[in-house]
Write a structure and sequence with these properties.
Strand order of the largest sheet: 2-1-6-7-8-9-10
Structural class: alpha+beta
Strand content: 15-25%
Number of strands: 18
Shape: globular
Distance between the termini: 28 Å
């Protein structure tokens, strides 16, 4: 699991900002927001333009770094515009089976890797200072990777040519190491890569803009399985959308999804924005075979009635009990101890600080407190 994340000098975050998933209080209610002693369900509030989306992008940066995906920055903004610092700094602390792994790296304005460091259980495994040309691979034997041909890696850095429009020109040593050394299946590095591979993020509102009324063939192929169609129908019903669905094959060979009434009603031509948002969520997350390790849902309830948003959080708790899920919202109805708890509800401020509600007031927050009323009345205003 991700234990802690720290960021500095990235987009609107000039100063250091951290999320400590192990910083929990001793509340005895809404315990399904906690898993293995860490926050597993988190809800972040914040005024517009405080950086909720940017925080998600920063958390997902390691996923981009370790994958073959090349990020494009159409607006060219990566570093904080008010900072004189030349790099954005990322730090991830993970826990796997009681072992702690800390992975730090920094990127320059064009996202090129500047340094990279790995520490496991307090032992420095490697340290790469790309800008200085200084590399320390002294403790690779600690992870049984002493046979790694580091000279070959260094040679690849020299021969790696810059490709137009791509961002990552330096191959991270961690990524190279996992790909070029036969590690044991229970290696902590294998666990790390598996966790990072299963991290995902999406913004519901932007993914719905220009939503095609005709869904792609892959989703229709999924729904041709009667069990999957039933699962999708039950998902909508659980969210409060009472309906029956039927998938028909048209004379021209195309398929169409319908609401089942006395007369069939084309689904995508008549579904509400909220229902289409649920379709997006189901397609991109719920229906996937692999189990996510970390999910960042930005503006997850942008098109939902508050009861549907509550249903969705409860659904996540049941379907993904151990998955670390961060949701952002402006819906204060969700700010309740019936659903969440004060150490899992956070406020992101305009100056780039992230504070849990239990640390945003001198009061000792209890289960009976009306958190929404306190928020609206200005109890936590100094942290906004």
């Amino acid at each position: 699991m991700l234990k802690k994340f720290t960021l500095r000098n990235y987009r609107n975050f000039k100063d250091e900002i951290s999320i400590d998933f192990h910083n929990i209080a001793g509340y005895q209610f809404s315990s399904d927001c906690i898993s293995d002693g860490a926050i597993s369900k988190m809800l972040i509030y914040g005024r517009n333009a405080t950086g909720k989306t940017n925080l998600g992008r920063a958390l997902m940066d390691i996923n981009m770094l370790m994958s073959d995906i090349k990020m494009f920055m159409p607006n060219g903004v990566f570093l904080n515009a008010d900072s004189t610092g030349e790099t954005a700094e990322f730090s991830y602390t993970f826990l796997f089976e009681g072992r702690e792994l800390i992975y730090n790296y920094s990127r320059s304005f064009n996202q090129e890797l500047q340094n990279e460091k790995l520490k496991i259980d307090g032992t420095d495994i490697f340290n790469c200072e790309f800008t200085k040309g200084v590399y320390d691979f002294a403790n690779l034997e600690y992870i049984e990777a002493e046979i790694a041909n580091t000279d070959r890696y260094l040679q690849s850095l020299e021969t790696n040519k810059e490709v137009e429009d791509t961002i990552e020109t330096k191959l991270p040593f961690l990524k190279w190491l996992v790909s070029n050394v036969a590690l044991n299946s229970d290696s902590i590095l294998i666990q790390l890569v598996d966790y990072v591979r299963r991290m995902t993020m999406f913004t519901v509102s932007s993914s719905l803009m220009g939503f095609p009324r005709k869904i792609n063939d892959s989703f229709y192929e999924l729904l041709e399985n009667s069990e999957k169609l039933k699962d999708f129908e039950e998902f909508l019903n659980a969210m409060g959308i009472e309906c029956s669905l039927v998938l028909k094959k048209l004379p021209d060979g195309q398929r169409e999804l319908y609401f089942a009434h006395e007369k069939l009603i084309p689904f995508f031509q008549n579904a509400s924005s909220g229902t289409l948002a649920l379709v997006t969520l189901y397609r991109r997350l719920v229906s996937r075979v692999w189990e996510a390790s970390f999910i960042y849902l930005d503006e997850f309830d942008a098109f939902y009635h508050y009861e549907m948003a509550e249903n969705l959080i409860r659904f996540f708790k049941i379907k993904y009990p151990k998955c670390q899920i961060i949701m952002t919202s402006h819906n204060t109805n969700l700010m309740t101890n019936r659903l969440m708890r004060p150490d899992c509800l956070f406020i992101l401020s305009r100056i780039g600080t992230l504070t849990s509600l239990c640390n945003a007031t001198p009061r000792e927050l209890r289960e009976g407190h009306n958190l929404e009323k306190m928020y609206i009345s200005g109890e936590f205003e100094q942290y906004e």
